[in-house]
Amino acid sequence: MSPVVRPEPDGASEPAVDVAARPRLVEPWPPGVSREPTMRISDVLADLGGDFPALTPSKLRFLEEQGLVEPRRTAGGYRQYSRADLERLRFVLTQQRDRYLPLRVIREQLDALDAGETGQAPAPRLAAADGERATSPGPTGGRWTVAGLAEHVGTGEEVVTALLEAGILRRDAAGHLEPWSREALEVAVALAEHGVEPRHLRPLRSAVDKQVDMVGQIVAPLRGQRAVAAQAHAASVADELAELFSRLHTVLVRGGVSDLPL
């Protein structure tokens, strides 16, 4: 059957076109990065854990449910990610951490990037010229030793030990330092140049612990549910609260400093 032709007001006529059937003219963001699913969840956590130590499998599943990344499934139902998926996840997590954007806004940004509607697309970080994944130095298995962390940051082991004794750095159940210890040590070393010693930072640790307890109380009802979606939602809410507390702390400190008689 021939397509129905409807006359236009000026007398011209064209057959109706199915827009959804048109071929995609713009490669989804990030362009030029492999979309071959070769990475498991554990590989994604290993790659992103250094920059986003709070990232968990539950958070990855939640971002998938929100339509921000679409890993493929094996015949056995296991998720597999591509390097393009990895870059999209990095973009989402960076926008959450650095700009405090809600997922709705980040999804709109990704849609714009996919449509080629913006020239502000960030450059992919993990794709080298030959398409192979670029790696950066970091802790083995996502955990630091005292010696390894001190060497990586370029300071003495005694500095790391002092921060452990002050409670600023902490060990996990296996005795390793947590992934976020690198950034904490770098900040502590910078503060030391101004005469701020590890012992001076103990009140900061106490204040942080109280905030963490507050976050735990807020997400407790969600964590008490057995559904995977509820657990993922709890992780996302906890991340958002942590970033909001961090932002408020920064605002208060900057405001207080601005009032100093300088």
TrEMBL record:
Keyword entries, A-Z: DNA-binding
Q: Which GO terms describe its molecular function?
A: DNA binding; DNA-binding transcription factor activity
Protein's UniProt keywords contain Transferase = no
Q: Where is this region: Disordered?
A: 116-142
- For whether the record's keyword set contains Transcription, the answer is no
Q: Which residues constitute the signal peptide according to the record? A: none
**Which InterPro entries has this protein been placed in?**
DNA-bd_dom_put_sf, MerR-type_HTH_dom, MerR_fam
Start and end residues of each HTH merR-type domain = 55-112
A Pfam family assignment: MerR_1
Residues folding into a coiled coil are: none
UniProt-recorded name of the protein = MerR family transcriptional regulator
Q: State the organism of origin.
A: Actinotalea fermentans
